Amino acid sequence: MTVSFYPDIKTVSGVNNSHATSYRAWLQYTFITSTTYREQVMSLLKEMECLNGSDISESIEQEWTFAIRKMIGFQPAVVPEVKGNGLRIVYVDSMEKEAFHIKNEDGIQILAGGEAGALYAVFTLLRHIQRQGDLHSLNMKEKPANPLRIINHWDNMDGSVERGYAGESMFYRDDSFRENIVRWKDYARLLASVGINAVSINNVNVHKVESYLITERYLKDVARVADIFRAYGIRLLLSINYASPMEVGGLTHADPLEEDVAAFWKQAFDDVYQAIPDFLGVVVKADSENRPGPFTYGRTHAEGANMLADAIAPHNGIVIWRCFVYDCHQDWRDRTTDRARAAYDHFMPLDGAFKDNVILQIKNGPMDFQVREPVSPLIGALKQTNVIVEFQLAQEYLGQQRHAVYLLPQWKEILNFDTGHEGEGTFVKDIASGKTYNPTHSGIAAVGNLGDDYNWTGHTLAQVNLYGYGRLTWDPTLNEDDILSEWSDLTFGQEEHIQQLLEAILLPSWLTYERYTSPLGIGWMINPGHHYGPNIDGYEYDAWGTYHFADRNGLGVDRTVETGTGYTSQYAEQNAKIYNDPNTCPEELLLFFHHMPYNYELTSGKTIIQHIYDTHFEGVKGVESMVANWEALEGKIDDKRFSDVLERLKHQLSHAIEWRDIINTYFYRKSGIKDIHQRKIYE
């Protein structure tokens, strides 16, 4: 399967030569100007020993020879046997399949447990060369912490992308697959270069047309995509419609305990695996936000998931079952019902009831990817069930990729959170990786932030989140500063001044966004439906269960055991005690757990209302600094990326001002308490 890639960028739909640097993302393979370093590479890596001719081997050889030619200026030969200096790849049966060891010992060698390990090693070595790392003392030994490292696409076959902020789907248009092979391959290259090993290619909210992806109508097309991704060590998943026995199979029901439903799924999976023998499995959203599921028939989620698990088990497939299940028709006047409780209430009683090939996918927080919320109490509480932790690359509630927000500091906080479920030191990163409970399957998934825009992510700076997600799921111990530095070097070059300015823009960007939007963990306060822009009461009298309960005296949600919803009791004792008491609750989450008066004094000495005013003014100043720092890059990077990002940052600044003024005005009118600094707040 030989498919040319981006040297011929004109073959990519919607991309032209002016877009080249944006499209290449972190795989720029920029020519290295140091003659000394180029000579070092040429002396050590004149040749590459050819491999076994498989699709992954071909990908390795293509990537290596192309990248070295671009960076160093010579074409390394691919030979049957390296006799002098060159790159040797040796497969070692005792190593794990995705593990590798790069060393310089009688020449540069890659020892790998399998083809995927060799692929990851080559990308790692190319990254090292691009950053002009030393080749003489090479000794890099790595293996991924998380067995499953997944991107979930929310693409629809009409070409739209739910919560998509980077153009239309790269996979579909007009209920058909696009002829987009070159782009699919370049996407697979990007993912493989940071260690992603699985992709689901359609929306978890599966509509009627997408229900047929598992049928003869589309399976040949799905197999074409699988062929391309397979060459980069990436396996395919599909999101399925739980009601497919009715939508596709002509049955009158989808009761998981009925034989005709089980027979439908068995045949469906037989057909899928006939077309795609290494198909990984399916993603299921059931009984959530008006989606069909086993509750319709009085069955549990374990019964629903296990039926699918039995049907796919003969093919060694997996069922990823999302835990985003809650009542989206609740009465806003009922303060005893709490959306944050829902996942734990639904799934904790079922711990141990799921088959070994079922994996529960749990959102990182109990609500819905807010700028600040606590870690879901279900993570770590489930001790006899396979678990995947879910993040969101798509900045649905964080500026929708029109705002620059570096997400890794947030994810690092989550991964390093101590759940306490097995005593002190039970970190989320160890639960996700399978280290804590040794499940059959484990890992991390993220809702993707990609589309068919020429720069992949809409906002060029949002590429850092995709890069960082891959690197962090490969190794959760990596530092967010170091990952940003890597990405900056690979994407914009190694000039120190450029890196410093990018760090000044991106490292504080999450906290900057939080400052000009929602305070102290309250979240939401955003326009319903499309989730962009401030609307403080947008969800306040709504059935979706996302409230702030602001009145003239205070704001926040009482989730304590004594007077509130009791949500705090879902955590292990050490965290439950901390969260339940406003005096010990982390202040950045104070209003998530407690309804507090405006004049409550924080540890800073400021009252809550003054904190709201101050942070919103600070947030705007933070974006002003982002704009100024980017403007200082004019002439140091290509014009297209410079102008594109500047336009987005200026939009972000105007939007931050809107957020500041609307939030401050709202809470001034609610509280009647003036800003002690007498800044402009509209009455």
Secondary structure layout plus pairing:
Blueprint: H1 20-24, H2 35-44, E1 47-49, H3 55-72, E2 77-79, E3 86-91, E4 100-104, E5 108-112, H4 115-130, E6 139-142, E7 148-152, E8 172-173, E9 176-177, H5 181-193, E10 198-200, H6 216-230, E11 235-240, H7 244-247, H8 259-275, E12 281-284, H9 301-312, E13 318-322, H10 342-347, E14 358-363, E15 386-392, H11 408-415, H12 428-433, E16 442-447, H13 463-474, H14 480-492, H15 496-506, H16 509-516, E17 554-555, H17 573-580, H18 590-593, E18 596-597, H19 608-631, H20 639-671
Parallel strand pairs: 1-2, 1-3, 3-5, 7-10, 7-16, 10-11, 11-12, 12-13, 13-14, 14-15, 15-16
Antiparallel strand pairs: 4-5, 4-6, 8-9, 17-18
Could you describe the 3D structure shown?
This protein is of the alpha/beta class. A hairpin with a 2-residue loop joins strand 8 (about 170-175) and strand 9 (about 175). An eight-stranded parallel barrel has the order 7-10-11-12-13-14-15-16. Strands 2-1-3-5-4-6 form a six-stranded mixed sheet, with helices on one face. Helices cover about 35% and strands about 10% of the residues. The protein has three domains: about 25-140, Chitobiase/beta-hexosaminidase domain 2-like (Chitobiase, domain 2), CATH 3.30.379.10; about 150-475, TIM Barrel, CATH 3.20.20.80; about 515-670, Alpha-d-glucuronidase, C-terminal Domain. Pfam families: Glyco_hydro_67C (PF07477), Glyco_hydro_67M (PF07488), Glyco_hydro_67N (PF03648). This is Xylan alpha-1,2-glucuronidase. Its EC number is 3.2.1.131.
Oligomeric state of the chains in view? single chain
Summed over residues and divided by their number, the pLDDT gives a mean of: 96
Number of domains: 3
* Number of helices in the DSSP assignment: 20
Give the CATH superfamily of the largest domain: Glycosidases
Give the terminus-to-terminus CA distance.
66 Å
Approximately how much helix is present in the residues?
A: 25-40%
Task: Please tell me what the overall shape is.
Answer: globular
Going by helix content, strand content and strand pairing, the class is alpha/beta
CATH topology of the largest domain: TIM Barrel
**How many DSSP E strands?**
18
**CATH top level label of the largest domain:** Alpha Beta
Poorly predicted ranges: 1-6
Task: Give the radius of gyration.
Answer: 26 Å
Strand order of the largest sheet: 7-10-11-12-13-14-15-16
How is the main sheet built?
8 strands, parallel, barrel
CATH architectural grouping of the largest domain: Alpha-Beta Barrel
* Beta-strand share of residues: 5-15%
GO biological process, one term: xylan catabolic process
Domain Glycosyl hydrolase family 67 C-terminal: 457-679
Protein name: Xylan alpha-1,2-glucuronidase
Catalytic activity: Hydrolysis of (1->2)-alpha-D-(4-O-methyl)glucuronosyl links in the main chain of hardwood xylans
